[in-house]
Amino acid sequence: MSLRDDFERDGVVYLPSVLTPDEVAALARGVDETIARPGPMALDMQPEDGSGRFFEDFCRWGDVDHLRRVILGSAVGRIAGELMRSAEVRLFHDHTLVKEAGSSLRTPWHQDQPYYCIDGTQTVSLWIPLDPVSRRATLEFVAGSHGGTWYMPRSFQRNSAMVFDEGTLEDVPDVEADRAAFPIVGWEMSPGDAVAFNMLTLHASGGAEGRRRAFSIRMIGDDVTYAKRPHRTSPTFEGIDDELADGDALRSDRLFPVLWSRADGS
Ligand SMILES: O=C(O)CCC(=O)C(=O)O
């Protein structure tokens, strides 16, 4: 079995040492800069028990040089192209996710694609920790859950329906209540390792032990198209409707730059 077969079957694979030490250091500097200078979509969640906060920011590749350098210059585009069997790979967006040491905030079970303005099957997200992550605190997945069902996207803070009207999609199953009933996978990880997963694969993570900085690079392949949704997506893309109509391929070099193509890369 190849890694690509595993990715297609399980919707997730573990990839050790995807980034070089220099790239890990650059991403860490980029994440520090992002926290110091949050963007318009940044969220800062403080748990009620006063433990460490959970900081998130989206789409910072355009103005944080260290992030852009790694996204455009590392192996991530080629890896995505091979996993998705895509002739071309575009960046969809980046997502910074930092849990401070001791944070009790769990990331609830969810799929990513229902939060987004895209349809299609050639999707992959690389979640890359910049600090060591134990098996207990790591990102976990329900293997094979990318097979077709779309679950309702909900706000992590308020649990309210997002993007689609309440009641139009079924709710995420209560995986935590019956973990033994689901094929849950997850890996202890070192800085610069990645888990690569389809944007429909159910995933979640525990709170943080030490400080846990992670960076997700989300990439799309040939069959992905723009999908207008009834409500605001997360993230949003400024000016997208001036460039793309519902159903168009995401061919905007301004918003979604090409990271790799088979002709260049093979
Ligand atoms: O870092 C986390 O806790 C969650 C990550 C996640 O859900 C994602 O990258 O899609």
Describe the structure concisely for a colleague.
The chain has 266 residues and is α+β, with helices and mostly antiparallel strands. Helices cover 19% and strands 25% of the residues. The strands form 3 sheets. Strands 1, 2, 3, 4, 7, 10, 12 and 14 form an 8-stranded antiparallel sheet that branches.
Provide structural commentary.
With 266 residues, this protein is of the alpha+beta class. It has one domain (3-245): Sandwich (Jelly Rolls). It is 19% helix and 25% strand. It is built from 6 helices and 14 strands. Strands 1, 2, 3, 4, 7, 10, 12 and 14 form an 8-stranded antiparallel beta sheet that branches. Strands 5-11-8-9 form a 4-stranded antiparallel beta sheet, with no helix packed on it. Strands 6-13 form a two-stranded antiparallel ribbon. A hairpin with an 8-residue loop joins strand 2 (43-45) and strand 3 (54-58). The mean pLDDT is 96. The structure holds 2-oxoglutaric acid. 2-oxoglutaric acid (AKG) binds next to strand 4, strand 7, strand 11 and strand 12. The site of 2-oxoglutaric acid has 11 residues, from strand 4, strand 7, strand 11 and strand 12.
Helix content: 10-25%
Decide which structural class fits the backbone.
Answer: alpha+beta
Overall tally of structural domains: 1
Identify the CATH homologous superfamily.
Answer: q2cbj1_9rhob like domain
Q: Let me know the average pLDDT.
A: 96
Tell me the CATH topology: Jelly Rolls
Oligomer: single chain
Q: Kindly provide the radius of gyration, computed on alpha-carbon positions and rounded to a whole number of angstroms.
A: 17 Å
Amount of beta strand:
15-25%
Q: What's the N-to-C terminus distance?
A: 21 Å
Query: Bound small molecules, which ones?
Result: 2-oxoglutaric acid
CATH architecture identity: Sandwich
H and E order: HEHEEHHEEEEEEEEEEHEH
Report the count of strand segments. 14
Global shape: globular
Which consecutive residue ranges, at least 5 long each, have pLDDT under 50? none
CATH class: Mainly Beta
Number of helices: 6
Biggest sheet details? 8 strands, antiparallel
